[in-house]
Write a structure and sequence with these properties.
This protein has twelve helices and twelve strands. Strands 2-1-5-4-3 form a five-stranded antiparallel beta sheet, with helices on both faces. The termini are far apart.
């Protein structure tokens, strides 16, 4: 009896397995390439196509960016032809029927002025031309029309009108992000200019006065200091690149400190501890020099005692940790907070708020300056710099000439 049951189980197992497999097949649709149901597959393809079209548009609306994105956008709409225009011309035509360019631009005057979409039939004498209808969807950024997306099809379609409008809105969002990126770049450039303006005129005058004092007594020393001054000012007022390397920034600081030592002599003691691994790290231009200038101002000026300044740069794995510490006069923490918040003039802390803002803009709020200070207790400024950050690349080492 037990042998019979065992044989029956062996015979039923394949039937149960087949039934389970058939049930699974009928319970849900067949998967496509491991991506799920046909709906899920179509959703993935749409999102993937949109992600490929987005990067060029993040650079703004130009002939090049339009050319790189047009085919992806036409794929999203599934039309025979698609063109992108600015206010004056067709930037790119993808698909058939490019001889309609002139007619399209003539019909765009209204939509470009009002910012409202429009659909209209196309006139064509070519019997084999498949495009007979155009749908215009304006591209707007901050309520300003920058151009239009035009989809061309064989016939009028309410679905295409809605789809073109949605794709145009998505393109407009990418263009708005591009505009924000450009605004951010202009803001950073303006802040660099402001930071350059904050380079103390007293430092420049004092440096030139020190150099002049050596002209007769020690001409070779005067020549060396003049070269240090030239190298420092050339770096500070360079015009290319928003970012530099830690090595270049420290090199400029070395020129700056050479001029300060010539003025204050033995009153300034500087210690540098720099890990070679962090020298190639990219960081915002003129990011550390203002912090050193701040330390000198609070450590030396108006005092007769010796000032100790320590600059360290450590490798902490994914980040470089830069610390600038002095034993000078320090600052009231309440006043410091007001300076960083922009509530009072930064004359009491040269460039601190500027540098803090720029670090937060580039790396995020968690990367602002960490400042420890108190009246009479000196100041310790810590800056964390990610070794790798998208969009942060040095323009290369500044060369002479």
């Amino acid at each position: 009896m037990s042998g019979f049951l065992a044989g029956l189980c062996v015979a039923i197992l394949p039937l149960l397995a087949a039934g389970f497999w058939l049930g699974r097949r009928t319970a849900r649709p067949q998967t496509l390439g491991g991506l799920g149901t046909p709906v899920e597959h179509a959703t993935f393809e749409t999102l993937h196509t949109a992600s490929l079209a987005a990067p060029p548009l993040r650079a703004g609306l130009t002939e090049e960016t339009a050319r790189k994105s047009a085919r992806r956008l036409r794929s999203l709409l599934g039309t025979d032809a698609l063109c992108l225009t600015d206010q004056k011309q067709v930037l790119v035509w993808d698909g058939v029927g490019s001889h309609h360019r002139t007619e399209i631009m003539e019909r765009l005057a209204g939509p470009l002025e009002t910012g409202r979409g429009e659909a209209f039939p196309l006139t064509c004498d070519a019997p084999d031309c498949p495009v007979r209808w155009a749908v215009v969807a304006p591209l707007t950024v901050d309520d300003r029309v920058h151009g239009a997306l035009v989809a061309c099809a064989p016939r009028e379609s309410a679905v295409l009108v809605r789809a073109a409008g949605e794709v145009a809105r998505w393109v407009s969002v990418q263009l708005e992000l591009a505009d924000l990126d450009q605004s951010r770049t202009r803001l950073i450039e303006a802040e660099i200019k402001a930071l350059r303006a904050q380079i103390s005129p007293h430092f420049i005058f004092n440096s030139l006065a020190v150099i002049a004092s050596f002209v007769r007594t020690d001409p070779e020393r005067a020549r060396e200091l003049l070269l240090e001054f030239a190298d420092f000012t050339r770096y500070s007022f360079r015009r290319h690149g928003d970012f530099t390397t830690l090595a270049d920034e420290l090199h400029a600081i070395d020129h700056y400190l050479a001029l300060v030592r010539a003025r204050f002599g033995d009153r300034l003691s500087v210690t540098l501890q720099i890990a070679p691994e962090v020298l190639p790290v990219a960081l915002p231009f003129l990011c550390l020099q203002p912090l050193v200038e701040n330390a000198i101002k609070h450590g030396l000026e108006g005092k007769t005692e010796k000032c100790r300044l320590q600059i360290t740069a450590q490798d902490t794995g994914a980040e470089a940790l830069v610390v600038i510490e002095d034993d000078g006069a320090g600052m009231d923490p309440v006043l410091l907070r007001r300076i960083l918040a922009g509530e009072v003039s930064p004359s009491g802390g040269i460039g601190l708020s500027n540098v803090d803002d720029r670090l937060r803009q580039v790396y995020g709020d968690s990367y602002g300056l960490v400042i420890e200070t108190a009246v009479g207790a000196g100041m310790k400024i810590t800056a964390r710099l990610p070794k790798y950050q998208p969009g942060v690349h040095s323009a290369g080492r500044l060369t002479d000439g």
